[in-house]
Amino acid sequence: MKPLRDIALLYRRSFIQTFRVPVWLVISFSTPLLYLALFTPLLKPIAGGPGFPNGNVLDVFLPGILALMAFMSGASAGFSTIFELQAGYTERIRVTPASRLALLIGPILSSLTWTSFFITMIIIVAVPFGFHIHIAGLLIAYVLLALLMVLFASFSIAVALLTKEINSFAAVVNGINLPLLLLAGIMLPLELGPSWMRAIGHFNPMYYVVEADRLLAAGQLWNATIAEGFLVMAPLAGVAVVWATWVYRRAIA
Q1: What is the pTM of this model?
Q2: Which residue range is the domain that position 42 belongs to?
Q3: 205-217 and 224-251 helices, crossing angle to 10°
Q4: Tens digit of pLDDT for each residue in 98-156?
Q5: Which one of 9, 38, 55, 110 has the fewest beta carbons within 10 angstroms of its own beta carbon?
């Protein structure tokens, strides 16, 4: 029971701290809105073409934006870890009996709560503009997006603990952002790209999330593509949590 109590306490601490820097909440919500407002109109001329079989660009584009939100929320988790290192919080926490797993999971669950809230708000905003809601499919998609967020949050926190300073951490995270996003088909389906790009995309775990989320958002509840998404993301998320917990234990041993 103690690890669960520790997770609950650290979740509450991280959740409340978010209110102290409201600019992050504004940016987290406004960025996907800008994508919807400024990028969706550019896709309308290719509606009905490859990658947009139903002719509705939002049904294809929005699931990619939801994956982007989960990815960015996870990838940015390490910045908070860097700030806590610089503020001496990590030094103070090492003398407490708090579970090292809880130190990792509590803040991740807090970020996951905020991300789920913003994803729900974006979906609601997109409905009047033509996005079709399929509740069951979206609920399953939430699970897949949660795995994506946990994977990159664990990775981000572990890298932050290893680099220990903002410049090195930012270089690593920003260096992987662009290739991962482009090769996941987030902005445009990879069906529009050349065969070599589609082949490389299969080595990107985000690709499987985006492909599965598009099918789930369209109302398909299970097929080979959706199964692939879970078979890829669940083990990777588990490995990332184990690795990040090990790094955390060494960092505050």
Answers
A1: 0.90
A2: 2-251
A3: 130
A4: 677 888 888 899 889 989 999 999 999 888 888 888 899 999 999 999 999 999 999 99
A5: 38
